[in-house]
Design a protein that fits this description.
256 residues, alpha+beta, 8-stranded mixed β-sheet, 5-stranded mixed beta barrel, 4 helices, 15% helix, globular
């Protein structure tokens, strides 16, 4: 039986008309746009399937992930309703490691663009502190989409998620959802390592520990967890993949 996630209650997504006006010039994919100012903006709090790109920086070309093109088109269609004009509110952490601005986007009537994409099953919620302003409402919206198996939730790699015991596909891109039984838990002075079947490890750094107050990591041994985040290929003597976890919202306990 699936337990509740290790976090608090949900609230409804509010409308917001307080953002800065901006105009979108180009939609890169379902979670990234370029403004007429030249600024690239990453939609905070969600992750959409990847779209194809050519080879660059010695990286090979890739193909669309399932629903990648559909997610981009859904965002384009939504923006067309407001002639590409949006209201933009930057996240508490306003820039990512690629130099993109992190922001919450709204249509002129205050409708959340992030929530709309999640409701259509064109993106999933992700939890990267401190940008958690919409975390609860996006989770609630996602649950409804998952119940109806719309968009990405019709795919096994999202629901129930990639089974670590059978192996992580080598072509995984971006954020992912995984599930696996906990073989061991190790806590050092800087990191909690939660080792799952299939040589996959969840990495909870010391800076995230305050978010996990009251959580007994060692009690997870032998239980099956479902986790979401960015999978990183990290082949060493301990694991082949690791997933940094920044928030308890990113983990569900599937078995007691």
């Amino acid at each position: 039986m699936i337990s509740s996630p290790v976090w608090a209650a949900l609230v409804a997504c509010p409308e917001d008309r307080s953002g800065h006006p901006a105009t979108v010039a180009y939609v890169d994919d379902g979670d990234t746009v370029r403004l007429t100012t030249g600024e690239r903006v990453r939609l905070a709090g969600i992750d959409a399937p990847e779209v194809a790109h050519g080879a660059y920086d010695r990286k090979p070309a890739t193909a669309d992930e399932p629903f990648g093109a559909a997610s981009r088109q859904a965002l384009r269609a939504m923006l067309a309703r407001s002639h590409n004009r949006i209201l933009l509110r930057y996240g508490r952490e306003s820039t990512d490691r690629y130099g993109r601005r992190l922001a919450y986007l709204y249509l002129s009537d205050g409708e959340s663009i992030q929530a709309n994409l999640v409701a259509q099953g064109m993106a999933m919620a992700v939890y990267m502190p401190p940008n958690l302003d919409l975390a609860d409402c996006l989770t609630l919206t996602e649950r409804a989409a998952a119940r109806n198996r719309v968009g990405i939730w019709s795919l096994a790699e999202y629901a129930p998620g990639i089974d670590t015991a059978t192996g992580v596909p080598s072509d995984v891109q971006g954020a992912a959802i995984i599930r696996g039984r906990v073989l061991s838990v190790h806590k050092s002075t800087r990191t909690v390592w939660v080792n799952l079947e299939g040589r996959v490890a969840l990495q909870i750094s010391r800076r995230a520990w305050p978010q996990f107050q009251g959580v007994d990591f060692h009690a997870w041994r032998g239980k099956t967890l479902r986790a979401r985040g960015w999978l990183i290929r990290d082949k060493n003597r301990y694991q082949d993949w690791r997933m940094p976890i920044e928030s308890p919202r990113a983990i569900e306990v599937l078995s007691r």
